[in-house]
């Protein structure tokens, strides 16, 4: 009896185990089929290389005026210059294309220096007239309309030349700064006195830029004063038309002769 009962239990276990095993195979097979037909994972794209910094560019100009002509001559003399490189710890150090050699840089700075001095000498009289400091109607009417008109036109001319000078100055000083920074990455392994040479190279570029920066600062100061003078002149012209007599100047001259 015990033996019959044991056989019955074995048959019952087999009867339940078989469907479970089949079900397990079906589940495993379905999962395998899903993995087989599933699209492969796309490889991770490589990170793009860091873009190179934007090079400093000199203004594109037509050679107009004394400054434009001088700078065009500097550029023409350096047209055939090849990209400049110097040895560095991680390979060649490429200098910005705005720099075509120190001779070209100094040529441009000398042209700026000459233009800056010309502006100071040619338009300083507008500042000396002290238009913003006129105190009364008599002072306004004592100003000759022709002189006022001439100074107003000169102020307009100054502003145009000053803007051109400032644009060229900013571009060339930016270029000099970039070159000075690049020189700090240069190494001269074949030179026994490399640190001293590199120091003198950097100081030379800085000295070239400093020479014109002093005069440029004076021009900026005059530009501010001429801007104030121009605004005052516009107001004075309106007052002149409103308050001054047509024979004001003739009367003033007659009074001057009588007082003598």
Spatially, the strands of the biggest sheet line up as 1-2
| Total count of helical runs of at least 4 residues | 7
Domain count: the total is: 1
User: What's the number of extended β-strand segments?
Assistant: 2
**Rg over CA atoms:** 41 Å
Main structural class: mainly alpha
List low-confidence stretches: 1-53
Task: Write down the overall mean pLDDT.
Answer: 80
The percent range for helix content is: over 70%
SSE string, helices as H and strands as E: HHEEHHHHH
Measured distance between first and last alpha carbons: 161 Å
Major β-sheet profile? 2 strands, antiparallel
So what's the overall shape? elongated
Percent of residues in beta strands?
under 5%
Mind sketching the topology for me?
Blueprint: H1 2-37, H2 65-77, E1 85-88, E2 91-94, H3 102-128, H4 137-141, H5 145-183, H6 194-243, H7 248-259
Antiparallel strand pairs: 1-2
Helix pairs in contact: 2-3, 3-5, 3-6, 5-6
């Amino acid at each position: 009896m015990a033996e019959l009962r044991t056989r019955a239990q074995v048959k019952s276990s087999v009867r339940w185990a078989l469907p479970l095993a089949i079900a397990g195979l079906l589940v495993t097979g379905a999962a395998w089929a899903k993995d087989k037909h599933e699209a492969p994972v796309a490889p991770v794209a490589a990170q793009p290389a860091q873009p190179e910094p934007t090079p400093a560019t000199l203004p594109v100009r037509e050679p107009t005026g004394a400054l434009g002509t001088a700078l065009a001559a500097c550029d023409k003399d350096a047209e055939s210059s090849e990209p400049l490189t110097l040895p560095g710890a991680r390979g060649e150090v490429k200098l910005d294309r705005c720099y075509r050699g120190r001779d070209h840089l100094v040529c441009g700075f000398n042209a700026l220096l000459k233009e800056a001095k010309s502006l100071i000498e040619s338009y300083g009289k507008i500042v000396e007239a002290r238009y913003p400091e006129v105190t009364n109607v008599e002072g306004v009417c004592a100003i000759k309309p022709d002189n006022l008109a001439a100074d107003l036109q000169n102020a307009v001319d100054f502003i145009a030349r000053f803007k051109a000078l400032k644009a060229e100055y900013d571009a060339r000083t930016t270029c000099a700064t970039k070159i000075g920074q690049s020189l700090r990455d240069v190494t001269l392994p074949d030179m026994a006195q490399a640190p001293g040479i590199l120091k003198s190279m950097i100081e030379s570029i800085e000295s070239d830029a400093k020479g014109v920066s002093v005069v440029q600062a004076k021009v900026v100061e005059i530009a501010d004063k001429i801007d104030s003078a121009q605004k005052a002149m516009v107001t004075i012209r309106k007052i002149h038309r409103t308050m001054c007599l047509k024979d004001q100047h003739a009367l003033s001259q007659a009074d001057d002769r009588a007082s003598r």
